[in-house]
Amino acid sequence: MTFPSGPLLFLPGLLNDAVLWRRPIAALADRTAAVVADLTLDDSIAAMARRALAAAPPRFGLVALSMGGYVAFEILRQAPERVTRLALFDTGAAPEDAAHAALRRQGMEQIKVGRFAGVTTRLLPKLVHASHVAGPVGEAVKAMAERVGGEAFLRQQRAILDRPDSRPILATIRVPTLVAVGADDVLTPPVLSQEIHAGIAGSRLHVLADCGHLPPLERPEGTAALLREWLEA
Question: Coiled-coil ranges per the record (predicted)?
C-alpha cells in the first residue's frame, strides 16, 4: 500500500522499546507505514543514527521522543535530504549540563556494582503524570525497562552524556515540524520544547495537559491526533 505522506520512522527514548509507540502507530495505520528503530545497541548518538538510517526507507518522516530526539537531530546532521517531516516529543536540543551529567553517572555506577533495578515505583512519578503511576501505563513503563535491560541502559546513558549541542541546527530545519510536550514533564520540561519551537521556523508547539514525559503511553489518542494533523499539514 502506498501512503501520500510516506513512511514514518519512530525513535524511542531511554529504556523504551517499540511498545512506546504501539497505540499511536495502530491509530495511524490507515495513514502511514511505520518503522520503529532499535536504539538499544549503540553507545553513541551518532552510531544510533547510522543504524536507524540503515534500516529506514529512502525517505521518511521522523517521530522521536526524549533520547530519540537527540538521535533525530543527528539524523538531520547525517542525512537531512532523507527527512520529509519532523515530530519531536518531550526532548531538548541542548547538551547535557553538569548537574544532570553527575546524576546520570551516579546512576550508572550504581548499576555497575549492583543489580539493574529498571524503572522503580519511586522513579515513575518523574516519568508519568501522577494519575498514571498506578495502573497499566506505569506497568508498561516498568516492563519496557526490564526488556531493555541494564547493559543497554548503560550504552544509552553513555550516548546521552556525550550528545552534541543540537541548537545550532534548529535554524536549518525546513520540513513541517511538530514540537509536543507533556505539561507536567519534569525530565524535559516544556521550556526545552519552547526553545526548539522558537528555533525552527514555522514549527507548531503543543502542550498536552495532565501528561508527563511519555505522551505516546499516557495520551495515545491525543498523540495520534497530533500526528494525524501533522501528516496532513
Answer: none
**Rg of the chain in Å (alpha carbons):** 16
Q: What is the rounded distance in angstroms from the CA atom of residue 136 to the CA atom of residue 132?
A: 8
The x, y and z cell numbers of residue 126, run together, are: 518523574
The pTM of this model reads 0.94
| Element containing residue 35 per DSSP (H, E) | strand 34-36
Query: DSSP secondary structure string, 45-94?
Result: HHHHHHHHHHHS-SSEEEEEETHHHHHHHHHHHH-GGGEEEEEEES--SS
Cα 33 to its chain centre, rounded Å, is: 18
Which residue bears the cell 546532521?
A: 77
Q: What is the pLDDT along the chain (233 residues), one digit of tens a residue?
A: 556 668 999 999 999 999 999 999 999 999 999 999 999 999 999 999 999 999 999 999 999 999 999 999 999 999 999 999 999 999 999 998 878 888 888 877 777 666 787 788 888 999 999 999 989 999 999 999 999 999 999 999 999 999 999 999 999 999 999 999 999 999 999 999 999 999 999 999 999 999 999 999 999 999 999 999 999 98
